[in-house]
Design goal:
alpha+beta; 57% helix; globular
Length: 598
């Protein structure tokens, strides 16, 4: 069975030493979010995740959710309800929500650290409260006063949960093709009719009510995506004070049978003249939904991080215990019949790859949270806008790269165990199955790549990329004067320059061939991911050499060694992605469709 222990030391290193988050919070007027309080929150969250959620991970995978066709209900695995009740009683749902609606008002960055623990402990369980945070953000920014005053407190205290209902059987990413309709009622509400699929936590037995945020079209809506509106549709109808009244006309038709995250209910939801409430302006639903979607995408990136960390911990433990063959030069354990496999170069390759991606990814995701906090709380409008642009730039990178790397990390971990890796009792094959799904929902890797290159870089003129690039170039300049870091800084600087050149190349090529963006997008995203991670490993190394950390000497040395490994072994992957981008669209588009099966 796989186990999980929260890496508090590294989390605190990222938050307090690298990001100096407590200092940043104080500057933003969040003086209560000091180091002492944040550390206490993390320690308490670690206890809950390790003792309550982690033991249920295998249970959820083994039992899965159960659909009760007679009542259209979903039963969650054994222990899930009790864990959720404790989660609510301890106040975790309200951690980062606004105080005016019952939240604790802590920074988003702290919530990200807690979510990482939840995902590593039990990703399937974590999917049930996952979208409530995004629903809260959408209603807070776009909802009516009644929705804010009546619905938000229940979402924030965890008595209700939220969903995001976009996809339909005939359309996935192309939301302009949705058929769900919203017909106005005489009382100002709307009758929602249609079918939504792949709805995470669309039905369950954990909370007393579920708030569905549903994309639909009004009778007079314009064609395509410009005619989409967003509606709040409760499982149980509610009165003006928020009391539950009767069952709304929305039911779960079935749940999907999946390769992983069995403990999470992925539902087909049928709306049959269900009562709904317009959120925001008519025909402007995508704007409101994207508020929720971006939160969810960072959340899925955190799922990739959590799975990678748990898999790496278990592979490392096994590699230290498993005896097999002798070290190449001389026995490492002469008192044993063989050496532990951690002495062998290929095992070290896999473990160090995982370590570099996990610890680098933690810096990436926590920094995205800090930019989000700066955007929300800064009194400088221009600075807030820049931080918001950086979050927009980092979101597709974090979602796509962290989930793609989670496949690599979980498979590396399985490989370290050899034949034991695919045996269910060890738990790693579950993590690998779960990880594979994370690259698909909340927008596939290809969709994230198009969002990054097509929208964030080309359409929006790369505002977030330029702001992040300025930070990167300043770090490169500073580190060129540090002998131990100069070569890494030089490589990172060259890559950043090459990324700019590739961006210009694509922008010019697309004028002649519209396929150039789609052809380059995946490699452009991955190239960007390795550059961003290079920035964080260089910054971590500089933090250590500057002497401003509180961890022990062994921890500090490990950071420098991992940074060296990253630049020697993983950063060169950018060269392959650059070559693919330069090849253009022709290698992909030249072959006639009929030749694919020739």
């Amino acid at each position: 069975m796989s186990t999980y222990r929260v890496n508090l030391k590294d989390m605190q290193f990222v938050l307090f030493d690298v990001l100096k988050a407590d200092t940043q919070f104080a500057a933003l007027g969040l003086a209560d979010a000091n180091r002492e309080l944040i550390s206490a929150v993390l320690e308490e969250s670690a206890r809950f995740c390790e003792t309550q959620l982690a033991p249920l991970n295998a249970v959820g995978d083994r039992e899965g959710c159960t659909f009760v066709a007679e009542t259209n209900d979903v039963r969650t695995p054994a222990g899930f309800k009790q864990a959720y009740d404790q989660y609510v009683d301890m106040g975790w749902p309200s951690l980062v929500s606004p105080p005016e609606y019952g939240g604790q008002g802590l920074p988003e960055t702290v919530g990200i650290a807690v979510k990482e623990m939840i995902n590593a402990s039990n990703l399937a369980w974590g999917n049930f409260p996952l979208l409530s945070h995004g629903a809260t953000n959408a209603i807070e920014h776009h909802g009516s006063d009644w929705q804010k005053q009546v619905v938000l407190p229940h979402l924030i205290n965890g008595s209700w949960t939220g969903t995001m209902c976009l996809t339909e059987p005939q359309c996935g990413t192309d939301l302009g093709l949705i058929k769900t309709r919203a017909v106005p009622n005489a009382d100002g509400t709307y009758a929602i009719t249609g079918t939504k699929i792949f709805i995470t936590a669309g039905e369950h037995d954990l909370a007393e009510n579920i708030i569905h945020l549903v994309l639909a079209k009004l009778p007079d809506a314009p064609e395509g995506s410009k005619g989409i509106s967003l509606f709040l549709v409760p499982k149980f109808n509610i009165d003006a004070e928020g009391q539950l009244v009767d069952r709304n006309h929305v039911k779960c038709g079935s749940i999907e049978h999946k390769m992983g995250i069995h403990g999470s209910a992925t539902c087909v939801m049928n709306f049959d003249d269900a009562k709904g409430y317009l959120v925001g302006q008519a025909n402007k639903g995508l704007m409101a939904m994207f508020t929720m979607m971006n939160s969810a995408r960072l959340g899925v990136g955190l799922q990739g991080l959590g799975l990678s960390d748990r898999a790496t911990q278990n592979a490392l433990r096994y590699a230290r215990e498993r005896l097999q063959m002798r070290a190449a030069n001389q026995p490492a354990r002469p008192d044993k019949p063989a050496d532990p496999i951690i002495v062998h170069p290929d095992v070290r390759r896999m473990l160090l790859t995982n370590k570099a991606l996990v610890e680098g990814g933690r810096m990436l995701l926590y920094s995205a949270g800090l930019h989000a906090d700066s955007s929300s709380y800064s009194k400088d409008a221009a600075a807030a806008a820049t931080d918001n642009a950086v979050v927009g730039y980092l979101t597709p990178i974090a979602k796509a790269c962290m989930t793609e790397w989670s496949i690599e990390c979980t498979y590396n971990a399985m490989q370290c165990l050899g034949g034991h890796g695919y045996i269910a009792e060890h738990g790693l094959e579950q993590l690998a199955r779960d990880a594979r799904i994370t690259t698909l929902y909340e927008g596939t890797t290809g969709i994230q790549a198009l969002d990054l290159l097509g929208r964030k870089v080309l359409q929006l003129k790369g505002e977030g990329m330029q702001a992040f690039g300025a930070q990167l170039l300043q770090l490169v300049t500073d580190c060129m004067a540090v002998p131990q870091l100069a070569s890494h800084a030089q490589e990172l600087g060259k890559a950043a320059q090459e990324l700019q050149e590739l961006t210009l190349r694509i922008a010019q090529a697309v004028q002649k061939d519209g396929n150039e963006v789609g052809a380059a997008a995946y490699d452009y995203l991955m190239y960007s991911g390795y550059v961003v991670l290079g920035y964080w490993w260089l910054r971590a190394a500089k933090t250590v050499l500057d002497g401003g950390i509180t961890a022990d000497a062994e921890f500090s040395a490990a950071k420098l060694e991992t940074a060296d490994f990253y630049f020697a072994r993983l950063f060169p992957r950018t060269r392959t992605h650059a070559a693919a981008i330069r090849s253009g669209a022709a290698p992909l588009m030249t072959m006639p469709e009929s030749h694919f099966d020739a």
